[in-house]
Amino acid sequence: MSRPGADRDTFYVGYLPLPAALRGFVRVSVAVALLVVVAGVVGLAAAQPGAGDGSWADDTVTFEGVLTGAPYPMLHGADPDDPGAPKAWLLVSSVKTGVAPRAAAALGDAAQKRVRVRGQALRRKGQRAVSLVDGDDAITVLGDAPEIAAVPVGAAGVFVGEIIDPKCWLGAMRPGSGLVHRACASLCIRGGIPPCFVGGPAGAAPRFYVLTDSSGAPCHDAVAERAGVLVRLRGDLAQLGAATLLRCELASIEDVR
User: Fold this and answer.
1) Can you point out the beta strands (E) in 125-189?
2) What is the fold of 55-143?
3) What one-character DSSP code corresponds to residue 133?
4) Are 118 and 77 in contact, with CB atoms under 8 Å apart?
5) What is the tens place of the pLDDT at every residue in 211-253?
6) pTM of the complete model
7) How many alpha carbons lie under 13 Å from residue 135 in its C-beta half-sphere?
8) How far is CA 1 from CA 16, 17, 26, in A?
């Protein structure tokens, strides 16, 4: 019950209907709260990176080219959808792992072999990858192939950008970059998917690089935890067929704040 002199028209009791004098206030409060929630959701969504225009084809196709295993398994050959442009296809598995053991088994003691691979194509802009099918017929050796070696193409410099896992960035996940994808990218890289880098020298248009250590060797564990955030690093460039390698001085990697 209310105290003596209280306005009974505005005194609320939970098991009784809402007093008429309070109904307008409650309606306005609920509407304002809903608008705040909607604005927060829209703002959070707008702050996320774009999903990108990558694609992961559903159909399994056959590709032929030259397989190299170092620093990461790649198929060097034409894109059936764009035969006039040579491509370096990164090879990945159907799950969050790389295919280095399968590539090594196919190559044996050779640095490169001519092969046929089966898998699904991932494409984004000029970059390519193949998600190999499971099973022994994923890679078929066709014969020997001419040497494809990494050739230095630039002096050391400073690059700003993001360390990514290329499978997700190319279309396996949307978005495949940024903080929202950081845990997935780290898991993929630790699982053996080649780490890559999207960025470039300060002020330059971003490009796609395959990331290695300064000697050109794999660097999965050293960079996995740095994926998904804006970083600065120092390194130089080398060309391996159509792939551009960014040979990074691992100790130079730092967050850009």
Assistant:
1) 127-132, 139-143, 151-164
2) OB fold (Dihydrolipoamide Acetyltransferase, E2P) (2.40.50)
3) P
4) no
5) 999 999 999 999 999 999 999 999 999 999 999 999 999 999 9
6) 0.79
7) 6
8) 12, 15, 22
